[in-house]
């Protein structure tokens, strides 16, 4: 039995609907949204004494159920199908005396002006607005005009819809331009993932008298999980917000039925501000054999540790999921702009939402475990927020690492998952004569991070490799003595500070384009200038070009650790202009004949990377490379001449000798930093 129309135009044909309802018989037909799901929204806008008009009623049970539960009894139902009107009259004649069914076209209604307080439409607008042809839009305008005419001022037009973009846009634009208040509710789903996938929405258009000359619009959206409406500024924003919820529903439906081949990422936003509050990654482990207790788990990443390899990369999260032993692991990263009430608060906040991302086959009423490192949500203290024209918005924050270690980080918010600079903080030491505080019997709050910078510790692995590469300077049996070093890119200042402090005869010049970074490094990362440390606020391209023209061959080492602000390029460090051949030739010019150019290269585009390496080889005859394990960074050591080629054994010997010279009595040294280890994987390109 064929019930579908031959063309969308038939949705507006009385003949089609007569045939449809005769063939369907007494079985009710619900477009979408059962009464239990719609009831919480309808209850807000339909009062018992309201006169209600249902347009395009069909044989839906919605009016009958509203009547039977006492929501409202004065209900008039209209439809263009004579067959369905006769059928519905027979169903309700003896049991619902105040409810009526009339054969009437909603485009030409016989009711007087302002006759109803509520007009209810369940799927009728969706059925009429099947395309955006001129004739269709004219019918919709006529429908809206008639609804507006029969509604009282203060009355509500409630439209149950799947909210296709063109349908929602048309309704919102029409009624907002008439001065009506427009609110869109998302209807809470039944939780049955086998039912209709797309979410159902109710447009609530409240009639106000149009104020001549006023262009003000009131547009709001109410997500299913909250009653408080969120104000939006334009029709486009409202349509986009609805589209986000539709995409989320499709995603939940898809991943509930099949395992994810690729990791799925999404943001859950704060109800008040609309800003991201949680970032979720869905990680499936096909190798894990399912059992009753290992279907699904939630892993809360401690604050400030979301950038670590284990939590911040696909491969890291894959290993985390496999080691946790769950078929599906949902990792949750917490955002720095948000406040959290501990693990229990997060669990209460997320419990309902994360179950929408559960895999198929999860046992009923299964208690999903929440996991974390050490059982807490970590510590993050934002010390400084600012912005600059060159770097954009940035923050300085203190975070707790493993054990009792604290770290200070500089984060550029345009790339918030990348730590720009990092320094370890020293544990506070008691003053002479000061007694240690006894442990309080009551549980203490999270410790306040210490403030002093540990200048002996290089947090970044690529900085450790860059320093280790300085052993290439000098001969196999001689250590670098007086060094002239140029560092392009200051950041928090850890790299030039370490070179300055541990190479006691080195003169370090730093070039930084952004004066804000010099202020940040000085105030928050313990950086200072002096006789052997000078900062030049300048564009590195211009500074090197000027040196090449005026003072060539003056540096023993030139180090580039400068990030690119252009996120559209597959290379985030350095900017492309810094690895173009004419500029690299200028870098070679300012190096001494036995000097060393050290480049931190971060390039995800394999073709671009090969092009950069080819350019480097064309300028520098001898090129060493050191890949940083678990990171995209690759450190390149470039020599201006072919002399000084070292095999791995000699590199190790030089590194051990250099480390011995740097590790002087009374000078702190991180025992985990072994220069020879940093050069083990170095190879010649």
Automatic annotation (TrEMBL):
UniProt record, GO biological process: methylation
Span of the signal peptide: none
Keywords: Methyltransferase, Multifunctional enzyme, Transferase
Disordered: annotated segments: 429-450
Listed GO MF terms: methyltransferase activity
Pfam families: Methyltransf_31, Spermine_synth
Compositional bias per record (Basic residues), positions renumbered to this chain: 434-444
Gene Ontology CC terms: cytoplasm
Domain of life, per lineage: Eukaryota
PANTHER family cross-referenced by the UniProt entry: EEF1A LYSINE AND N-TERMINAL METHYLTRANSFERASE, SAM-DEPENDENT METHYLTRANSFERASE SUPERFAMILY PROTEIN
Protein name: eEF1A lysine and N-terminal methyltransferase
Source organism (scientific name): Pycnonotus jocosus (Red-whiskered bulbul)
């Amino acid at each position: 039995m064929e019930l579908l129309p031959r063309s969308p135009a038939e949705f507006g044909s009385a003949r089609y609907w007569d045939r449809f309802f005769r063939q369907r018989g007494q079985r009710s037909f619900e477009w979408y949204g059962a009464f239990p799901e719609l009831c919480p929204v309808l209850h807000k806008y339909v009062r018992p004494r309201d006169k209600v008009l249902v347009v395009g009623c069909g044989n839906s049970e919605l009016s009958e159920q509203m009547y039977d539960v006492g929501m409202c009894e004065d209900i008039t139902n209209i439809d263009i199908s004579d067959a369905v009107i006769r059928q519905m009259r027979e169903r309700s004649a003896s049991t619902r005396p105040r409810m009526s069914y009339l054969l009437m076209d909603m485009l030409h209604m016989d009711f007087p002006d302002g006759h109803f307080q509520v007009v209810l439409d369940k799927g009728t607008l969706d059925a009429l607005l099947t395309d955006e042809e001129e004739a269709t839009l004219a019918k919709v305008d006529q429908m809206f005009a008639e609804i507006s005419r029969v509604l009282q001022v203060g009355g509500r037009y409630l439209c149950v819809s799947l909210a296709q973009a063109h349908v929602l846009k048309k309704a919102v634009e029409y009624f907002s331009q008439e001065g009506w208040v427009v609110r869109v509710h998302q209807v809470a789903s039944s939780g049955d993932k086998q039912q209709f996938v797309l979410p159902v929405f109710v447009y609530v258009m409240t009639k106000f008298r149009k104020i001549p000359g006023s262009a003000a619009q009131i547009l709001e959206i109410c997500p299913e999980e909250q009653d408080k409406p969120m104000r939006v500024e334009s029709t486009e924003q409202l349509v986009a917000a609805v589209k986000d919820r539709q995409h989320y529903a499709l995603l939940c439906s898809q991943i509930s039925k099949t395992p994810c081949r690729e990791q799925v990422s999404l943001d859950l936003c704060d109800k008040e501000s609309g800003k991201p509050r949680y970032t979720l990654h869905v990680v499936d482990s096909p190798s894990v054999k399912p059992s009753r207790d290992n279907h699904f788990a939630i892993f809360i990443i401690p604050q400030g540790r979301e950038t670590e390899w284990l939590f911040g990369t696909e491969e890291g999260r894959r290993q985390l999921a496999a080691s946790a032993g769950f078929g599906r692991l949902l990792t949750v990263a917490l955002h720095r702009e948000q406040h959290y009430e501990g693990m229990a608060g997060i669990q209460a906040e997320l419990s309902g939402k994360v179950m929408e991302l559960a895999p198929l086959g999860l046992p009923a009423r299964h208690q999903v475990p929440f996991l974390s490192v050490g059982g807490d949500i970590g510590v993050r203290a934002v010390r400084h927020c600012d912005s600059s024209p060159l770097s954009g918005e940035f923050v300085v924050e203190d975070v707790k690492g493993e054990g009792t270690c604290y770290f200070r980080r500089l984060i550029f918010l345009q790339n918030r998952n990348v730590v720009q600079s990092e320094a370890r903080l020293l544990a506070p030491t008691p003053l002479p004569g000061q007694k240690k505080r006894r442990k309080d019997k009551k549980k203490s709050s999270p410790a306040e991070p210490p403030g002093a910078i540990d200048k002996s510790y290089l947090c970044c692995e690529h900085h450790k490799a860059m320093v280790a590469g300085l052993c290439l300077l000098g001969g196999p049996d001689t250590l670098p003595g007086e060094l002239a070093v140029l560092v392009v890119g200051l950041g928090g200042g850890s790299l030039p500070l370490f070179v300055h402090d541990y190479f006691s005869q080195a003169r370090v010049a730093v070039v930084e384009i952004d004066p804000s970074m010099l202020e940040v490094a000085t105030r928050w990362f313990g950086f200072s200038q002096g006789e052997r440390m000078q900062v030049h606020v300048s564009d590195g391209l211009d500074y090197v070009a000027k040196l090449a023209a005026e003072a060539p061959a003056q540096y023993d080492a030139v180090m580039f650790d400068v990030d690119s602000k252009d996120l559209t390029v597959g290379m985030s460090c350095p900017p492309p202009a810094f690895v173009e051949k004419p500029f690299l030739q200028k870098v070679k010019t300012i190096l001494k004949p036995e000097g060393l150019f050290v480049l931190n290269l971060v390039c995800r585009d394999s073709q671009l990377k090969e092009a950069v390496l080819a350019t480097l080889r064309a300028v520098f005859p001898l090129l060493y490379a050191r890949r940083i394990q678990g990171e995209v960074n690759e450190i390149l050591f470039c020599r201006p001449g072919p002399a000084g080629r070292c095999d791995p054994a000699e590199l190790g010997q030089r590194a051990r000798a250099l480390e011995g010279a740097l590790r002087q009595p009374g000078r702190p040294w991180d025992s985990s930093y072994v220069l020879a280890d940093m050069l083990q994987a170095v190879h010649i390109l």
